[in-house]
Amino acid sequence: MLKAGEKRTVRSWEDMEKEYGLDVVGDIMVRGCFSKEMNKFCGDEVTIKHVYGNGMASIEEDSCYLRSPEMFEPVGKLLSANEVWKWLGDNYIDGHYVEVFGEDYDFSELCENFTFEEIVKRVSDYVNSQNKPYNGNIVCTESESALFTQWKKYEVKDGFLVGNSGKTYGSETSNRMPFRSFDEINSRFRSKFAKLIED
C-alpha cells in the first residue's frame, strides 16, 4: 500500500516487462499501463504525492501520469530472514533497537508488538539508511587548517566533501569511500562542522 510522502524506487523496465509483459503498443501491462515516456524514471527514488481511492498514485517529480503500486519497490532492498536475525542479535545491546522500533524492547516484547514482516521492513530500512552516502550542506564552525574556512558553507554530495583547494574528501584517508553520516565528517577532520538548515 502506497502512502503520501513516502519514498519509493521506480522499478526497472526489464523487471516489470518480465513480470507483466507488454501490450499491443509496447507498454507494460500493469494497472494503468507503464508507457515508454515513463521509462526515464526507472531506477529513480521518487516521492509519492497523492494516493487515490483506487490505489493509483501521483509522484512529486512528475504530474503527467498516475502510477499503480506495481510500478514501485521499496527504497533499498529487504534483508533476508537470516540477515534480520543476525542484525537483531548483533545489535541487541547497542541501543539501535530504540532507533528502529521506538522502544528498547526485549526479544519477546518485540515479537508481541510487531509482525515478522514489520520487523524485516524496519530493520531493512534502517540498514539501508546507514549505507546511503550523506548529502547536505554544512558550515565550518571551527577551522583548524587551510582545508576549510570558518563560517563558510560546504556541500556534501553523494558522500564527498570538496575543500578550499578543490580537493575532494571521503571518509578514509584514501578519500575513496563516501561519508555515510554527518558524524563521520566531524570525526574525520580537526576542523568542526554544523549542519546547515535552510528554508
Question: How do the helices and strands line up, and which of them pair or pack?
Answer:
Layout: E1 7-10, H1 13-20, E2 45-51, E3 57-59, E4 62-67, E5 72-74, H2 81-90, H3 96-101, H4 107-113, H5 116-131, E6 136-142, E7 153-157, E8 160-162, E9 168-169, H6 182-188, E10 192-195
Antiparallel strand pairs: 1-2, 1-5, 2-3, 3-4, 6-7, 6-10, 7-8, 8-9
Helix pairs in contact: 2-5
Shape: globular
Quaternary: single chain
Q: Residue-averaged pLDDT, rounded? A: 87
N-to-C series of helices and strands: EHEEEEHHHHEEEEHE
Structural class: alpha+beta
- What is the tally of helical segments? 6
Please list the strands of the largest sheet in the order they lie side by side.
4-3-2-1-5
Helix content: 25-40%
Biggest sheet layout: 5 strands, antiparallel
Radius of gyration: 21 Å
The low-pLDDT segments are none
Strand content: 15-25%
Integer tally of domains: 3
Strand segment tally: 10
Distance separating the two termini:
31 Å
Describe the structure.
- This protein has 199 residues and is of the alpha+beta class.
- The chain folds into three domains: 7-74; 81-131, no CATH class; 136-195, no CATH class.
- It is 27% helix and 22% strand.
- It contains six helices and ten strands, in the order E-H-E-E-E-E-H-H-H-H-E-E-E-E-H-E.
- It has helices at 13-20, 81-90, 96-101, 107-113, 116-131, 182-188, and strands spanning 7-10, 45-51, 57-59, 62-67, 72-74, 136-142, 153-157, 160-162, 168-169, 192-195.
- The strands form two sheets. Strands 4-3-2-1-5 form a five-stranded antiparallel β-sheet, with no helix packed on it. The protein has a five-stranded antiparallel β-sheet with strand order 9-8-7-6-10, covered by helices on one side.
- The radius of gyration is 21 Å and the shape is globular.
